[in-house]
């Protein structure tokens, strides 16, 4: 058995060496996932390939968690907390992206494929006996599906069929108890922003609610007798004008975003549309802001139904909660990132620096200390057709080194720093409170305009 050491610099050096030695393999792995994008809860190939690689590294994989997710624990010898290292599996749908799947439009326009290479690098370092023997506690490697909250109609169907309880990967994994044996968690996401340094850590994200809206009218011959119909598309039209009328009431500090798509705008042009489906999102700096704005938006949907004398069915789906990065974990990660990239290339953001987007790491941050850091190496517009990874060495290899070093700092020396993180962290909710709160936010409103 390898001899334990408290020389953290030596351990970090060893970890870097192991990860760098595998750089080509890790990058090729991530690139392969990038060329074979799969959307949330359908990442079957991605998950299988990654799970096989994790098993090849000697770990036991618990598969089929939240459909396509998995977990592999690695226990160290001494007592201590369990640190989760997370890799997100899913892509978006962005037709026109150079790596888009021609049939599904799936494309890794958010860079999640780099995380598969990262996690394999972290596993290689932390399971090495020379490193593992000096650490206490455990590390849980978690592959999380469906971070992008898309395909809402399909997920709602899966929810109603009992296949999923919550409609994003980490939300569902929390509900299922996947994080019950985890004390803190981290992940590194790619960034193409020019002001994000080589690494950035801190900041927050928006909370959100998902609205699945069905405008219900009455089909009729669009030429022969349109007066016999009730036009659901006109209802949606009026509703969206009313939604836009709310915007002047949004406060800057609340970082409100209201946006949506029509996924079913009618089925045949010769018929007055009897049904229109709108899939939307209300975001804001916290769940209270979101709930207040969502009420105005619901009123707007009702206005559409009222105008044409139709009906509207609004399903409110619990979206994400705002992200809180743990300050102490952020400090540790930032110091390691500085060790890799230099102090001037690591950006620290204050807790109120809200990026406007949303992540289900926010949900996890409600129940345990987490960090959701960023690494550069991407170019183009996030979620756009031109978002690609230009520097895999940075996005995969350096990110893996930063995470491995952070876990070493947390779990070396009888996990002293890990213990300190837990002692200083006061997550706002227990897991049970989180699940109950989210379940209470799921509701259906039906309104008849007459
Ligand atoms: Zn994204
Ligand atoms: Zn993302």
Characteristic key phrases:
8-stranded mixed beta sheet, alpha+beta, single chain, 13 helices, Alpha-Beta Plaits, Aminopeptidase, 2 domains
In brief:
It is built from 13 helices and 17 strands. By secondary structure, it is α+β, with helices and mostly antiparallel strands.
Describe this structure in words.
The protein is of the alpha+beta class and 450 residues long. The chain has 2 domains: 8-205 and 321-435, Aminopeptidase (3-Layer(aba) Sandwich); 208-319, Alpha-Beta Plaits (2-Layer Sandwich), CATH 3.30.70. It is built from 13 helices and 17 strands. The protein has helices spanning 8-21, 23-35, 44-56, 113-126, 129-132, 152-160, 169-176, 232-245, 287-308, 327-341, 361-365, 392-424, 431-441; strands at residues 62-65, 69-75, 78-88, 92-93, 106-107, 136-144, 184-190, 199-204, 207-216, 257-264, 275-284, 311-318, 346-354, 370-375, 378-379, 388-389, 443-448. The strands form 4 sheets. The chain has an 8-stranded mixed β-sheet, sandwiched between helices. It has a 5-stranded antiparallel β-sheet with strand order 10-11-9-12-17. Helix 1 crosses helix 4. The longest helix is centred in the C-terminal third of the chain and has 33 residues, at 392-424. It is elongated, with a radius of gyration of 23 Å. The termini are far apart. The structure holds zinc ion (ZN) (2 copies). Residues 110, 112, 147, 189 line the site of one zinc ion.
């Amino acid at each position: 058995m390898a001899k334990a050491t408290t020389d953290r610099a030596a351990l970090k050096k060893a970890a870097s060496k192991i990860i760098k030695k595998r750089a080509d393999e890790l990058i090729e792995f991530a690139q392969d996932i990038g060329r074979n994008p799969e959307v949330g809860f359908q990442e079957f190939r991605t998950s299988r390939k990654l799970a096989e690689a994790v098993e090849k590294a000697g770990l036991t994989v618990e598969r089929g968690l939240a459909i396509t997710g998995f977990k592999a624990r690695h226990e160290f010898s001494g007592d201590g907390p369990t640190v989760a290292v997370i890799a997100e599996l899913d892509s978006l749908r962005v037709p026109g992206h150079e790596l888009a799947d021609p049939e599904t439009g799936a494309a890794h326009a958010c860079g999640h494929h780099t995380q598969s290479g990262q996690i394999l690098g972290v596993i290689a370092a932390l399971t090495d006996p020379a490193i593992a023997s000096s650490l206490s506690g455990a590390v849980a490697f978690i592959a999380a599906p469906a971070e992008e909250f898309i395909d809402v109609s399909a997920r709602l169907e899966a929810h109603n069929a009992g296949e999923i309880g919550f409609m994003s990967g980490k939300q569902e994994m929390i509900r299922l108890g996947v994080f019950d044996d985890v004390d803190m968690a981290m992940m590194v996401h790619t960034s193409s922003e020019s002001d994000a340094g080589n690494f950035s850590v801190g900041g927050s994200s928006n909370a959100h609610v998902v609205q699945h809206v069905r405008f219900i009218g009455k089909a009729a011959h669009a030429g022969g007798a349109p007066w016999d119909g009730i036009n659901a598309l006109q209802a949606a039209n009026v509703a969206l004008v009313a939604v836009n009328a709310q915007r002047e009431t949004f406060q800057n500090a609340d970082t409100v975003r209201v946006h949506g798509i029509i996924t079913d705008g009618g089925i045949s042009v010769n018929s007055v549309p009897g049904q229109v489906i709108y899939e939307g999102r209300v975001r804001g700096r916290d769940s209270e802001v979101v709930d207040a704005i969502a009420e105005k938006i619901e009123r707007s949907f009702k206005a559409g139904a009222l105008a044409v004398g139709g009906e509207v069915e609004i399903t409110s789906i619990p979206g994400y909660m705002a992200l809180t990065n743990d300050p102490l974990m952020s400090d540790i990660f930032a110091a390691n990132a500085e060790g890799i990239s230099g102090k001037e290339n690591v950006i620290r953001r204050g807790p109120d620096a809200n990026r406007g987007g949303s992540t289900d790491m926010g949900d996890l941050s409600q129940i345990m200390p987490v960090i959701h850091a960023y690494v550069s190496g991407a170019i183009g517009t996030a979620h756009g057709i031109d978002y690609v990874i230009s520097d895999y060495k940075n996005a995969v290899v350096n990110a893996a080194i930063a995470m491995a070093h952070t876990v070493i700092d947390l779990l070396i020396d009888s996990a002293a720093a890990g213990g300190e993180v837990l002692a200083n962290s006061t997550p706002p909710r227990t897991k049970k409170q989180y699940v109950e709160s989210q379940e209470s936010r799921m509701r259906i409103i039906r309104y008849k305009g007459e």
